[in-house]
TrEMBL record, chain A:
This is Xylose transport system permease protein XylH. InterPro entries: ABC_transp_permease. Coiled coil: none annotated. The chain crosses the membrane at residues 32-54, 66-85, 91-109, 121-142, 148-169, 206-226, 247-265, 271-289, 318-339, 359-388. One of its GO terms (cellular component) is plasma membrane. It is found in: Cell membrane.
Length: 423, 518
């Protein structure tokens, strides 16, 4: 599609419906509504906890506490968009955590196999085994057409039992220091600390983590350049874009949010390693779902599997890959979880699948398949995470916390459906 | 209310001036039908003439108030709100697709929704006893505890009839009862109907098989385009007469003109056979040979259930059936079409008859639907160029004249005609050499039909080979260059459209039926 089709790009209908500021704002409100909800919830807890929520230490904690949920929510988004479900991810993550512990700490290998206990080798083995577990479940779901609910329910039981079995019912730990870095570590400050307020009597010192600040600024500049380029390309091809004022406002607000968050992290210990991993994964999955043919086909099979098959999409193979990806992510999450606890316990990971699934549904995915966004799932996970964190700081009992979370899940899906029906 | 005339006292059912409107379509217009007590009354007409709609009005599927006109049954005017209402009066309809639950027993199916029970507790003795009694009446010698899935289609049909008898049926309606039956089973079924007649049960028989209809019915009502054409008495019934009455509609100028430029043979199918995916010993497609030339529009005529869709889908990546055998040739060279992907890569496209189930992702927008079958065309290394995709979508939206606010409109919200254009866009963008269009104008209005015909003409002018499956014979006669006639999985006729007529096509079908019967 080159010069030939470009001139007729601005078709009459497209020109006839110019994007007004109000219309564009409305479209964006739906898109950014969830982010707005998250910010409101955070402000609410900032108020009720007397300013604890936005303390740099606490924000860092929220990221660390929810990292494994978010990692799995990325895979679960693909699974749910494809019209399936994976109930096994909690148990699989627990099993992989146990496997990692046994490889690095529990099993005594003969000298010629000692390399298996190396944290990097063990980590890679765990990822491969996680992917293989997902692939095995995916194979049964895709090629034998056993409902995913049943296959992964069985998987949940099997891997719950397997973790108990290889750990012999004991907690195993602690992990080597290198492995702990996955969850407990922060990126090294290759730039050096920036002292804003030096330590002196009566004044709280303020020292910023230079590398974190630099990475945050580079990320913001990159994001803005990318959206300017996209806009310029659209205009060059004769397509209308949203009004410039709105475009600018949107970018400024998002840049401000990211910079604020960066500043918060930088004034504590800097960027946690796990956030780097998460950031790369999130960017990768946004690209996968929005730009790759692979992602597009997932939406197609979720929207109408028969039509997708009759359009030449290999629905079975695609389903198989999706579950393999989910397995690998569950393995990564299991390692993050184990590294954070610094030991593998037989109960690790149990029930996590429900938090992951809740995050994806709060994020606007449809239980019928075909609908859902990566950003939504990530924000959904943060909504759950901030609720947990804020209510814990407030000292709300765990029983009440559970009920509130249940109501939030129900309300989120209810309003989503209500909005869609109205539209 | 009723003004029953004395000599009509033996009339059990009168439907007067029935008019039923769907959004944008008048499905029935002032249809009149009267059925006498103890007669077999056949209703014939082309696909889409309104026969099934009329029966749905009668049985309460379309409740009273959703149509105009009167239904007078047993001398009183009826206002059925549901199937249950009509069944209480003894009117039972048996649909073409059997409504049996395969994994329940024969007895359970017979009393489904009408269980022999006291205070909600099923009385199994009475259930079996009653089932045995009605099974005897229909001459089915099976244990009532046998699961329905374990008996053949013919016997299942008898279970449906037994179910009707258990409801003390006075007027039995059968919609295409023999469509999926063997000749032997069909004959047995028709004998059974004659037996019911002797017991005073009236029967409305909807069938395409004119030989059967003329054999058993006392009177025949012909419906065409939602209107009653005439009611023939036994003495006047001949197949010729029925055919003329069925198809005799004036041809208007509903088809865009075109000058065909026909080249060499592009697409060829040799000795194509397919078996039913569930009943693996039933052959659905029986050794079909056909070809389509460059720039030629070829039609496949046939009645519903003749196997046309099954044939097309089995060609397209074995999307239907098992034990698919035969050869597909493109430009004289054998090609592998065993998966949809391979078929598409060889330049074969199939636009389905059922766009909502098989053709479109209804929850996504036009842009994504347009490029789905050819994502390679807008991507490099698996990365979609979204602006190139937008260009393509806008381009095809314009070419096929899709009426929407933009390419970002959700396909599920478009009208049928515009949805069909999205399906066409999708396959046009895949740039096929051979295009199989299955019922390309089903359920869309006349204006949109004209536009679709124009697109077909343009494609032919570009040198594509086009195969059109249609149940509307005037459409085939209006747009094709050559017509194959299909019946029960076989090609039973081939004629240049210039020499074809609806009568000739119908005769080819009827002749084939006759051959099989004798």
């Amino acid at each position: 599609m080159t010069t030939e089709t470009a001139p007729q790009a601005a078709t009459p209908a497209e020109a006839a419906a110019p994007l007004s500021i109000w219309g564009a704002l409305q479209a964006n409100l739906r898109e950014y509504g969830l982010l707005l909800v998250l910010i409101l919830i955070m402000l609410f807890f900032q108020w009720t906890t007397g300013g604890v929520l936005f303390k740099p230490l606490n924000l860092t904690n929220i990221v660390l506490q929810n990292s494994y949920i978010i990692v799995m929510a990325l895979g679960m988004l693909l699974v749910i968009v494809a019209g399936h479900i994976d109930l096994s991810v909690g148990s699989v993550s627990g099993f992989i955590g146990a496997l990692a512990a046994m490889l690095m700490v529990g099993w005594k290998f003969p000298p010629e196999l000692a390399f298996l206990a190396n944290p990097i080798v063990a980590g890679l083995i765990c990822l491969v085994i996680g992917a293989a577990i997902g692939a095995a479940q995916g194979y049964l779901i895709a090629y034998y057409r056993i409902p995913s609910f049943i296959v992964t329910l069985a998987g949940m039981l099997i891997f719950k039992g397997l973790s108990l079995s290889i750990l012999a019912g004991q907690s195993v730990g602690p992990f080597p220091a290198e492995f702990q870095l996955l969850s407990a570590g922060f990126i090294p400050d290759f730039i050096g600390a920036i002292t804003l307020i030096p330590a002196s009597q009566g004044v709280q010192p303020l020292v910023l983590h230079g590398a974190t600040l630099a990475i945050g600024i580079v990320a913001v500049v990159g994001m803005i350049l990318l959206s300017i380029r996209t806009r310029a390309r659209r205009t060059a091809r004769g397509y209308e874009s949203e009004p410039f004022a709105l475009f600018a406002a949107k970018n400024i607000v998002i840049a401000a949010l990211v910079l604020f968050f960066t500043y918060m992290l930088a004034s504590y210990k800097g960027l946690p390693n796990v956030l780097v991993v998460m950031g790369i994964l999130i960017a990768g999955f946004v690209f996968l779902t929005k730009r790759l043919t692979f992602g597009r086909r997932i939406y197609a099979i979720g929207g109408n599997p028969k039509a997708a098959a009759l359009s030449g999409i290999k629905t079975e193979r695609l389903t198989f890959y999706i579950f393999a990806i989910m397995g690998a992510l569950a393995a990564l999450a299991g390692m993050i979880y184990a590294a954070r606890l610094n030991s593998a316990t037989p109960k690790a990971g149990q029930g996590l699948e429900l938090d992951v699934i809740a995050a994806v549904f709060i994020g606007g995915a449809s239980a019928l398949g075909g609908v859902g966004q990566v950003a939504g799932a990530v924000i959904g996970a943060f909504i759950m995470g901030v609720l947990n964190n804020g209510m814990s700081i407030m000292g709300i009992n765990i029983d009440l916390q559970q009920m509130i979370k249940g109501v939030v899940l129900l309300a989120a899906v209810f309003f989503d459906l209500y909005n869609k029906n109205k539209a | 209310m009723t003004d029953t005339i004395p000599e009509m006292r033996d009339t059990i059912l009168q439907m007067r001036d029935i008019t039923k409107t769907f959004p944008g379509v008048k499905a029935l217009q002032n249809v009149n039908l009267d059925v006498k007590a103890g007669e077999i009354h056949a209703i014939v007409g082309e696909n889409g003439a309104g026969k099934s709609t009329l029966m749905k009005v009668l049985s309460g599927v379309y409740p009273h108030g959703s149509y105009e006109g009167q239904i007078i049954y047993n001398g009183e005017e009826c206002a059925f709100r549901s199937i249950r209402d009509s069944e209480h009066k003894g009117i039972v309809i048996i649909h073409q697709e059997l409504a049996l639950v395969p994994l329940l027993s024969i007895a359970e199916n017979i009393y489904l929704g009408n269980e022999r029970a006291n205070a909600g507790i099923v009385d199994w003795d009475e259930t079996r006893e009653g089932a045995r009694a009605v099974l005897r009446k229909v001459g089915l010698n099976e244990d009532p505890d046998t699961l329905v899935t374990n008996i053949g289609t013919g016997k299942q049909q008898l279970v449906e009839i037994a179910k009707a008898l258990s409801k003390e049926v006075k007027l039995l309606i059968l919609d295409e009862p023999t469509a999926s039956l063997s000749e032997k089973d069909s004959a047995a079924l028709l004998d059974l109907l004659l037996g019911f007649k002797a017991q005073g049960i009236s029967c409305i028989l909807i069938s395409h098989k004119l030989n059967e209809v003329s054999k058993v019915s006392d009177r025949i009502t012909v419906i065409r385009d939602g209107r009653t054409i005439e009611t023939l008495n036994k003495a006047d019934i001949t197949e010729d007469r029925i055919i003329t009455s069925m198809v005799g509609r004036p041809l208007e100028d509903r088809y865009p003109a075109r000058t065909p430029e026909i080249g060499e043979v592009v697409f060829e199918v040799k000795n194509w056979s397919v078996y039913h995916p569930q009943h693996r010993d039933r052959q659905v497609i029986k050794g079909i040979d056909l070809n389509v030339r460059k720039g030629e529009v070829v039609g496949i005529a046939g009645l519903m259930g003749s196997g046309r869709t099954e044939f097309a889908m089995s060609l397209f990546g074995k999307s239907y059936g098992v034990k698919v055998t035969g050869e597909v040739l493109l430009h004289g060279k054998k090609v592998d079409t065993s998966t949809v992907e391979k078929a598409v890569s060889h330049g074969i496209a199939y636009a389905t008859e059922d766009r909502k189930t098989f053709g479109l992702n209804l929850i996504d927008h036009i842009k994504h639907n347009t490029t789905l079958a050819n994502l390679w065309g807008v991507s490099r290394w698996g990365v979609i160029d979204d602006l190139a995709e937008l260009d393509v979508a806008n381009d095809y939206r314009k070419k096929t004249n899709i009426r929407s606010s933009s390419v970002y409109q959700t396909v599920g919200n478009l009208s049928g005609g515009n949805q069909q254009k999205v399906v066409l866009s999708k396959w046009l963008f895949a740039n096929p050499e051979v295009l199989i269009l299955d019922e390309p104008t089903r359920g869309i209005d006349v204006g949109a039909k004209y536009e679709i015909y124009s697109i077909i003409n343009q494609l032919a002018a570009q040198g594509k080979a086009i195969l059109v499956i249609s149940s509307e014979m005037p459409e085939l006669l209006g747009i094709t260059d050559r017509v194959y006639v299909m019946n029960e999985g076989r090609l039973v006729g081939e004629m240049p459209t210039a020499e074809a007529s609806q009568e000739k096509i119908m005769r080819a079908i009827v002749r084939a039926e006759g051959k099989v019967a004798s």
